């Protein structure tokens, strides 16, 4: 059902995790939700299809309904949260140049408060056009019947984009400076929630 893989191959980590019932947060006949092993935000989940599809570039027109089911499962996971996060706090999307085996939809909160956010490229992986919104991928698949492969030069350029906050126009020379700034955004947001409550 989940395909064959070698335990020693790090690229197959998602296949191992989605097969493990103890790591399945939600599951249907079509898809599985797991927590990202290296979360880049307070909440970071992955929705993976049961069907053996490696990347967005292997999607075919008949997979449009599968993508919609995957998104619905991600929405269901967010709606289960009890810590004040809502759908408005999340983005759903795919990486332009994903390296792990098995297509996976990122469901990620936009705080980016995480000790796992350690590299410049990791930030840009979620905060530039490298992170392809779910709706864009679904629309491209419906309109063109496939997802056009993005050139490596574009991928490299996006991952080296100067650091810009995702919540305000501030720019940063270092990831450390950006992370401190994000912590401040998080504290301000948390304080507002307390005052509203």
TrEMBL record:
Q: What is its main location?
A: nucleus
Entry-linked InterPro entries: HIT-like, HIT-like_sf, Znf-C2HE, Znf_C2H2_type
Q: Which residues form the HIT domain?
A: 11-118
Q: Which GO terms describe its molecular function?
A: DNA 5'-adenosine monophosphate hydrolase activity; double-stranded RNA binding; mismatched DNA binding; single-strand break-containing DNA binding; single-stranded DNA binding; zinc ion binding
Tell me where in or outside the cell this protein is found: Nucleus
What is the protein's name according to its record? Aprataxin
Annotated C2H2-type domain ranges read 163-190
List GO terms (cellular component aspect).
Answer: nucleus
Q: Which GO terms describe its biological process?
A: single strand break repair
Keywords of the record: DNA damage, DNA repair, DNA-binding, Hydrolase, Metal-binding, Nucleus, Zinc, Zinc-finger
